[in-house]
Design goal:
328 residues; alpha/beta; eight-stranded mixed β-sheet; 15% strand
Length: 328
């Protein structure tokens, strides 16, 4: 692996040792099978120990790992006969937002994906995964088409947030996202959104008003990025780690708060260590969710989608809570 995070380095060092030993074992006069197996067992144990105790900030780092599968990887591997659509019919085509139709197995689907890009030129083209208003308008255009023909919608979310530039604001960034939030409650097709990396602020929520919102095990989904939070609270983006830990970023907290519906397990050590397996696991979960959702009648589907989001943040205050607040 070309890139490793600080907490991954002990694992990578052991794996390098194993690779060297395997190369040496090509010598017929040298039997080091036991040593190799012992190190492999040590790697498995070490990975379990490290990844069971990740801090929220370490989860953020994993969600941003350069080798982690991107939206375009999921589309290329899972969606067959994919036909991309372009433009919002108003201003331009946003390369950060991929939209099109294809098949997941035998199931016809509409697919959305926020793509960050990998190499420098691709990152610039994709605007580092920060969509402009035309990207959200393009996604809504696709969802309305899907609704018209009763085609399930899949969204792969991976963004630090919508683009905050002056041009984007002048072209109605907040309005474009708000329209998505409103209109997605009326899309009559099943919607499944998956947070595959970062799910940042309204930029992520603009594709996540879904019947089922799923998070990958080492993804993050938050109202604000740690850096932005640190900039607002302490005027210092370098305190992003403190912000991440305070926000308690991670799927389990989101699941406890009923912000998401399920967590998709990742291969041992994260999706970047076995991208092929991670992509297949996500594909299987999406297909299972779609099969269940397509059995629900349209009116009930819309009612349950609305009720799900409407109930978020509801609090039940008991007599003892009131007493504690008054200090009596």
């Amino acid at each position: 692996m070309d890139y490793s995070l600080d907490f991954e380095k002990p694992v990578n060092e052991l794996e390098n040792q194993i690779a060297e030993l395997k190369q040496a074992s090509a010598n017929p006069n040298l039997d080091i099978t036991r040593e190799i197996k012992a190190l492999e067992l040590k790697v498995t144990t070490l990975i379990k120990e490290i990844y069971e105790k990740l801090t929220p900030w370490e989860r953020v780092q994993l969600a941003r790992h350069p080798s982690r599968p991107h939206a375009i990887d999921y589309i290329n591997k899972l969606i067959t006969d994919f036909h991309e659509i372009h433009g919002d019919r108003r201003f331009a085509d946003d390369a950060a937002m991929i939209a099109g139709f294809g098949f997941l197995g035998a199931q016809k689907v509409a697919v959305l994906g926020i793509e960050k890009g990998r190499k420098t030129q691709d990152k610039i083209k994709r605007n580092f995964g920060m969509a402009n208003p035309e990207g959200y308008r393009k996604s809504l255009r696709l969802m309305k088409l899907a609704s018209q023909f009763n085609i399930p919608v899949i969204a792969f979310v991976d963004t630090p947030g919508a683009y905050p530039g002056i041009g984007a604001e002048e072209r109605g960034q907040s309005q474009a996202i708000a329209e998505n939030l409103e209109e997605m409650f009326g899309i009559e097709s099943p919607i499944v959104s998956v947070i595959i990396g970062e799910g940042g602020s309204g930029g992520a929520l603009g594709l996540a008003i879904a019947d089922k919102v799923l998070m990958m095990e080492y993804s993050v989904y938050s109202v604000i990025s740690p850096e932005s939070c640190a900039s607002i609270l302490w005027s210092d983006p370098k305190k992003a780690e403190v912000a991440a830990n305070s926000l308690q970023l991670g799927p389990q907290k989101a699941l406890d708060l009923k912000v998401i519906d399920a967590v998709i397990a990742e291969p041992s050590g994260g999706a970047h260590r076995n991208a092929e397996q991670a992509i297949q696991m996500v594909g299987q979960e999406i297909l299972a969710q779609i099969k269940n959702l397509t059995k629900i009648k349209k009116d009930k589907l819309l009612e349950e989608r609305f009720s799900k989001f409407r109930s978020m943040g509801n609090l039940t205050i008991t007599t003892s809570d009131v007493t504690d607040i008054k200090g009596n």
